[in-house]
Amino acid sequence: MMLYPAMNKLTANVPNRYLLVNVVACRARQIAQHAEDMGEKLEEKPVTLAIQEVADGKIRVSAKDVEIRDIEA
Q: Can you give the pTM of this predicted structure?
């Protein structure tokens, strides 16, 4: 089974798989909460959107970073 996007593309922006899981989960919660607050229906699942943001380089985390900032702010 092939994963999309590839893990090496994701880990280029978040250097550690365990950190990646936390970053994606946190961002997915932000996306879901924002959609709920705005009364919007998401076409994709929040986790899918969060993973795509990481793959696109919209979210980059180094080992020193521990806070995810909203990219829309």
A: 0.79
